[in-house]
Amino acid sequence: MASLHQPLWTLSFEEVYESLGTAANGLSQNEAQERLEKFGANELPEPTHRPLWLRFADQLTHFMALLLWVAGILAFISRTPELGWAVWAVIWINAIFSFWQEFQAEKALSALKKVLPMQVKVYRDGELKQIPARELVRGDVMQLEEGDRISADARLISAESLYLDVSVMTGESLPVARSPYPVPLREAVSVRGGKTMLRQGEQPLQEKVNPSEIANLVLAGSTVAAGRAVAVVYATGAQTEFGQVAHLTTVVKREPSTLEIQVARIVRIITAIALGMGVTVFALSYLLIGMDITESFIFAIGIIVANVPEGLLPTVTLALALGVKRMARRNALVRRLSAVETLSATTVICTDKTGTLTKNEMTVRYLWLPTEPEQSEPNRDIPNDVLTNKLIEITGAGYDPTNGKVNIPSDSEIAWKAKVLLIGSALCSNARLVHLNAPNRWQEIGDPTEAALLVAAAKAELNLENLQKQLPRLREIPFDSRRLMMTVVLNWQSSELWSSEFPNLAFTKGAPLEVLKHCHLILCDGKSQELTHDYWDEVVKANDNLARQGFRVLGLAARQGGQELLDLKAQDLEQDLIFIGLVAMFDPPRPEVSKAIAQCHQAGIKVTMVTGDYGLTAEAIARQIGLVSDKVRVVTGEGMGHLSDAQLKQVVKYRFGLVFARMSPEHKLRLVQAYKDIGEIVAVTGDGVNDAPALRAANIGIAMGQNGTDVAREAADIVLTDDNFATIVIAIEQGRAIYQNIRKFMTYILASNVPEVVPFLGMVAFKIPPALTILQILAVDLGTDMVPALALGAEIPEAGIMDRPPRPKEEFLLNVPLILRAYLFLGAIEAMLSMLGFLMVWWSYGYSLADLQQVTPAILSHTADPTVTAIYRQATTMTLAAIVACQIGNLFACRSDWGSVFRQSLSNNSLLWLGITVECVALFAFIDFPPFRQVFGTASLANWHWLILLACPPILIGAEELRKLLLRNQRPGNVKRAF
Hints:
Number of strands: 30
Largest sheet: 9 strands, mixed
Number of helices: 35
Structural class: alpha+beta
C-alpha cells in the first residue's frame, strides 16, 4: 500500500494507478466526465479583468475628464448651456473611442491563445481515443509520441528512448531524457563522527527537488522531441507546474507607462495655468473694468476653456491608435495603447536567446580529427597552426541537406576518418529528417542536435537509409544528464568501412571530456594507438578552442566487440573506447538580428542576453550577432545567487559585455529590477512561461506570438506576431515617432491657445470688447484643430530618428523648449495677426481705438445697437478666420522641430491635406451655414478680408523658417537631439 505522503515519482507503476484511482486501460467515460465536472477543465484560469462598465467608467473619471466635467458645470452655472454641452461631448467622444480601441486590442490578442494543444490521445474504456486537451482529468492515461505537446503534468508508466523539449519551462534548448522508473527519495541526515544524528522515532529530511528535474515526470507545456511513452495525468490546469509559474506573474505590480506619467504631468501644468489665468481675469475684469460679476465669471470661464486644450485627449488617443495600426502591419500587436510610447524611452532590452535571437536550428560547422601531436603548441584560438589542418569545414545552414557540403580533403586517410566520424555520429542518433511537399523544405523530428548530425552526414553524400538497413541497431543506451553520453551497438558485419574481426561495433557520442575519460585508445594514422598524455592534451585543447568559439562540441568514440557488447552493463560497455574525433555545431542566429542589434546600439540602446542556455553557447551567439565585441562576462544564475542586490546593481551599471545564462524566473525578475533601480527603462522579450514574470515586471514586455506561451502573451505589453527580434527595432522606431508626433501636435494645439487668450487680456488691458467669443474658442479647438492635429500624429518617422540616444526618463513631454516655441513664438505670431484682423474690421468702418472703447460697455451688456453688433460679429469672425489661417501655416511648421518645411515631403501623409480640407470646410460652415452662424455668432466676410487671410500662413511659415535656420546654424550638432 502506497503511503499518502510518499511523492508520486517514488511509487511503482501499480502504486501510481492506485493513488490516482485509475488503471492501465484508463478511466471510463463516465468517471472521466464526473472528474471533469468536479475539478474543472484542463486550462489556465483567465486572469481577473475588471468589468467592462468599470473600464469604460475609467475613461470618464480620469483627471482631465474631471477637469472638463467641472468646466461644463461652470458653463451651465453661467447660463451658457450650449458651451456646457459642447465640453461634455468631448469627454464622451474620447471615452468611447479610447475604450473601443483597448477592447479591440484585447480581442485581437485572444486569437493568439494557442499554447496548449487542441487534441490529445488517451485511453477511455480501454480504447485509445482522441479528445480535446481541455477535457483531460486526473487519472487519464495518455499516449505520447514524437512531436506531441504535453497538455498536463503526468507520471511516466512506460517510455522508449523518450526525450523532451522543456525549453518552455526551463529555457534549456537541448532535449532531456526521461524514463519511467521510480526515483528514490534523497534524504538529508545530519552526521557527526561517522554516525547519523537521528533520534529514535525521527524521520530523515527529504531533499527538496525541482519537478522539472525528476526523470519520470513530464510537465505541461513540454514537447516530445523523440521516442514514445505512456503517462498518467496527476495535475491539470492551474495545478500544473506550468500553472504555478503562470500564477507567479499575478503578484507583480504593473507600473504606469511613461506616457501615462507624462500626460498626468501635462494635465497638472495646464490646469494650473488655466485656473490661475481664469482667477486673474475674473479679478481684473470685476475690479478694474467694473464689469458685472456674472459677466466677469463668464469671461473667466472663457479663459479656462481657452487654456484647456479640449482636443488633446482624443488626439493623443487617435495618434496612439494610428501608431498601433502601423505597428500591427509591421507584425507588432500592442495590448495597451499608452505602452507604445514607452518604447521611445527604452534604454535596455533584455532578450531571450533560443528562438528569439536564434533559429533554434543546430548546424554542424566543423569536424576535428586527431593527428600526430606536436611537442610545442601555442595556446591560440581557432584557426591556428595546430588546428587548421585538423578542421574539416561543413558549409550551409539549417536542415536542408542539399544546401552545403563537407569539404573533405583529398588525403584518403583523412577522408576515411571523416566518414567514420560522420557515419558513427549519424547512426548514434534517434532524430529523423522529413522532406516536405514544398521545394527545399525540410523538417527535423526529434533532437535538433541529432538532426544536425544527420544533415552533416547527408551533405557528405552518405545514404543514411541504406546505412541503417545495412548496419542495424542492436542495442541503445540513451543519453542522460548524469553520464552526458549516448551509446548504440550496431551489427557491423556488412560494413567495409572499418574492417574488424569483431561482428559488432559500439558508437558513443557525448560531451567530449566525458567521452575522453572512457577512452584508452585514439584513432590516428589509420589505426588505433595508445591515448598518451600528448594525445589527451591535444583533444582537450581542440575542445577548449572550439568551446571558446561558442560551438556546441560533441565527441565520438567506438568500441569493437562481439556478443559481450550486448550483454555488458551500461557503465561497463562505455569503457575502453577508441576516440575518433569531435563535431562542432551551432544554433545559427536569425539573419536579421545582427543588423537589428547594430541599430539598437546606434540608437543608444543596450541589449542584454538573458537565457536559460549554456554560458559558452550564449557567449558565442552574443559575439556572432554583434551583441558584444570585447571582453565578455558570463553571469550564471548560480553566480547571481551569490550577489547581493547592491552588488548586482553595480554589475549591470558598470560592467559591459554581460551575458546572463542559466537564468530562472526569479533570477530574471531580480535582473529586471536591478536595471530599473539604476534608472533604466527596461524592455524584456521572451516566449516561455519562464519569461512571463520578467515580462510583467519590466517597463514594457514583448512576447512572441507564434511560438510564445499563453502566459507570456498575457504578461506582455506588445506581442510580436512574427517572433522576429528585428521587429522590436521597428517598434522602437514607431514608439519614438509616436512620442515625437505627440510633441508636434501638442505644439500645434497649444499655439492656438495664445490667440484665444489674448482677446480677453486685451479686453482687460485696453478696455475693448473680446475679439473672440467662448463658443468660437471651442470651434477652433474641436471643429478646426482636431483633424490637422491628428495628421501630425500620423507623421512617419523622421530621417535619423534611430541615430539619437533614448530620451532621458526625466524629460518632460511638455518641456520648456516646447512651451517657449508654442506660446511665445508661434502663438504670439498668431495672436498678433488675429488681433490685427479684428482691429482692421473696426478701422474699415471708421472706428478708432477710442471709438471702440466707447462702445465696449454696450457690447458687453448686450445693449449695443444692431449696426455695432453686426460689426462686432464680423470682427470676431475675422479673428476666428485668422486663427484658422495661421493654424494652416502652423501645421506645416510643426512637422519638424528643426527641419525646413521645404525639405518635408508633401505626399507621404494624406491626412495632412485632409486636415487642411476639413479645417477650411469647417471655417466656411461656421461663417456661411445659418444654424452654425447663429450658434457661434459669426458673420460673412468681405473679399478683401479673404485676401488678408491668405497672407497669414506664409507669414507664420516664414518666421518659423527663420527660427529653424538660426537653430541649425547655432547648434549644428544638437538639433537632432530634441524630439
